[in-house]
Design goal:
By secondary structure, this protein is mostly helical. The protein contains four helices and no strands.
Length: 130
């Protein structure tokens, strides 16, 4: 039992250390949690696969925003930092924070709207055509 736990800890550390994109880190956490549940709580076996799939779906939605906003705002930060001086450094940090805040808010709202739309389409029948 201790060996299994040690292997899980090592796998988690290695997956986080080598995975740089958001999805790799998040999917690794889902995998470790799933394996831990299987090993330590075998009586919850029926819930392992659905919760693993849910975890990966949340990761995909969250990391889509992280990756999209990081590429959009990171390019702005990189070009802005090429100008030397403390004033420009502070200005770059402010612009990056503003860009990331707007981007994450917009992406999060779009993702939430998409999830709500899909959820509602499951529970409510489509409108009848006239």
């Amino acid at each position: 039992m201790i060996q299994n736990f040690s292997l899980l800890v090592v796998a988690a550390v290695l997956s986080v250390a080598w995975a740089t994109p958001c999805t790799d880190v998040c999917y690794g956490a889902c995998d470790v949690a799933s394996q831990g549940t299987t090993i330590f709580l075998p009586f919850f076996q029926a819930f392992v696969e659905p919760s693993h799939d849910t975890c990966r779906a949340i990761c995909a939605a969250k990391c889509n925003c992280v990756d999209t906003c990081q590429s959009a705002c990171g390019a702005l930060l990189t070009t802005c930092r090429e100008t030397p001086g403390f004033y420009y450094f502070v200005r770059c940090q402010f612009e990056y924070t503003r860009c990331a805040t707007v981007c994450f808010t917009q992406c999060g709202m779009e993702t939430t709207a998409g999830l709500l739309s899909r959820t509602m389409s499951v529970f409510l029948p489509p409108p009848e055509e006239a």
